[in-house]
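Why run this: before we spend reagent on co-expression, it is cheaper to look at a predicted model of the complex and decide which construct boundaries make sense. The entries below are exactly what would go into the expression plan.
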Amino acid sequence: MSTIAETAARGQARRRLRFDGWRWGGRIFLVFMLLYTALPMVWMLLTSIKSGFAAMQFPPQWWPDQPTLASYQKLLDPQNSVGQDFLRFFWNSLFVSTATTILSVIVAVPAAYAFSRFTFPGRNFLFFTVLLRNMFPAVIFLVPLFILMRAIGLVNTHGSLVLTYLTFGLPLAIWLLKGFYDNIPVQLEQAARIDGATRFQAFILIVMPLSTPGIIATAIYSFIGAWNEYIYAYTFLSKNEQLTLPVGIQRFFSENTTDFPGLMAASFIMSVPVVVLFLVLQRYFVRALTEGAVKH
Amino acid sequence: MTIVTGKTEARRRLQPGKSGVLRKIWEHRADYAYVLPAIAVMLIVIAYPIYYTIELSFFNTPPGLQLRDKTFVGFNNYTAILTSAVFWKVTWNTLIWTVGSTGISFVLGFAAALALHRDFFGRGVLRAILIIPWVISAVAASYIWKWIYHSDFGIIGAVLVGLGLADRPPNFIDSVSTVLPSLIVVNIWREFPFAMIMMMAGLQTVPDQLLRAAKVDGANAWQRFWHVTFPHLRNVSTVTILLLAVANFNSFIIPWIMTGGGPSNASHIWITHIYELAFGRQRWGVASAYSVLLFLILMTFGYFYVRALSGNDRKDGSA
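The model came back. Tokens follow.
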């Protein structure tokens, strides 16, 4: 609700500044950012529907004169060897990412709840230790984890990936979920306790349903992280049939870099699941991500 | 109004008996059950690797993975690193990469958040498009940009030639002088959306009344931004910049896939260099020593990060 004086003041300000430099500057800037963001993706799509010959021209064909879905057909066709490999990479990625997501959520939910609600000795220390994990790059952990995986016989299995993906999935999941639990009023649980529920029952029956958006957001984050992970998969897996998409498409094209339409089509297919997932659920996701940082 | 939280309840329970730490831990044994699985996973996949890396940094190892045949060399690996020219070259690259990527990503993301803060037609769609690069895989991003930078068929080169700004397409990522800035452009493309998301969330917490009051008092747009909006965003800015800086410092995929650190180390940063030392040249001891140094640097980042976050909590409590 604005008072008359405010409205008048605003009208005056508007009249004084016919040309709102800030607004126009903002618009021009957004157009620039849109071009910067979108053009590479548009170029990926346009290249992916060219023939190999059409892509290798200078100056380039801006718009493919004979658009073709041949690259996509090749990648998605289980009848030929390229398609077989590519689809296997796709399923491997899906399997590893889903397994990681499920495990992260199962382990992170109780931990985040405890960090949010309980005060046990060492709570802060443990929480910040968990947080600090995300400071450290995968490379530091590669050699020891490789040796560890070899010792327990997990090298060249997807199990090694799922286990290592928990190293970066868990800390984030715990952090995101804790933000959600912090925002659920304790009184709700206390009411349940008074009604005779145990603490665990209150957690399962009252808190869990309320934190569903947080769990969804956490699950997406874990999934995207695992889906895009490259360095562990690149180091731990050696057999062609095990590779996940990021490593798979690299093996695919590192020897034969001339097939840029194929490479762009593969990049596009790899991006689709996470982008769709993200766009559909971005509301939850953005909230979870920014929850902790914006308090003041 | 008094709100009895779990926290105060627990604190009250603890106060009467001046019991030892063990007793407190015993009293809270049920709480630990919730965090135990997480801690167990963390111990196996984090604590052990860190311990092992520190140990290995004091040894020389034969090539291959016969790490049992290692010989103790004291601090030799560390002195070897600090006296090598490559180390300083790579450190300089890392500094440019981290500061450049972080600074520009933050400024662009912040500016985009400000521009998107005002409602207009198509805002939601525009925001969604701007976020996409952050979600797609860095591997895909690397290939897309490699193709864009291609020295024969790249689109940027073609535009420059078409406009008469170059005789032939430049070698963006094959030339020592342009490779690092070219990779930074890719990196910013991928991560300014993160800064944008964080700052958009931050902007929503700036009280409208304050801005309106400032406007009534005659503050212009810049003054409103500088004296009202920006001070409110101190906290979220700190966290965002720290997270970006750490992520950039730890980058691997973009430089590794696009150039492999070349040409002649011009785009090697710490992480790619460590990776090459370990898995390329199998110098596990030296690579481990590098990792320990990295670890120490990151602990410094971590200190500020924790301080920023816990400063957050403290203000929460008093608010």
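Chain A has a mean pLDDT of 85. The radius of gyration of chain A is 25 Å. Bring this page to Monday's planning discussion.
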